[in-house]
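To illustrate the input format used throughout this study, we show a single complete record. The first block contains the structure-token representation of the backbone; no residue identities are included at this stage. The design step must infer an amino acid for every position from geometry alone.
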């Protein structure tokens, strides 16, 4: 496509999202279920050596802000070193979250 065939449909003003920003925003709003039958410890960092800051109830859903590597643990969805950040200073092992992937589904922290 040549440059003269590109059509600007917005004025680029404040409040308009580009296609890339929209995809990131949509991913950020997606929530994932905790494995059925589990009350999940939420920790202050990406490992079981970090303190428990709260416990998610059975049937809870989480929004993953970003993901990072940490302690390798096993859970109902396999073994992984991926930890999901679900809030400021709040991490859960990805092995307890049904994301539909063995890899990253959110930006890295």
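Output of the design step:
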């Amino acid at each position: 496509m040549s440059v003269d065939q590109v059509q600007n449909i917005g004025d680029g003003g404040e409040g308009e999202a580009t296609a890339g920003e929209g995809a990131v925003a949509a991913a950020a709003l997606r929530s994932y279920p905790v494995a059925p039958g589990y009350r999940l410890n939420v920790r202050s960092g990406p490992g079981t050596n970090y303190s428990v800051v709260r416990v998610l109830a059975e049937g809870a859903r989480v929004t993953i802000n970003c993901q990072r590597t940490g302690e390798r643990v096993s859970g109902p969805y396999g073994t992984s070193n991926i930890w999901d950040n679900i809030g400021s200073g709040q991490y859960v092992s990805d092995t307890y979250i049904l994301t539909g992937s063995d890899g990253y589904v959110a930006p890295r922290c």
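Structural context for interpreting the output: The longest strand covers residues 66-75. Residues 19-29 form the longest helix (11 residues).
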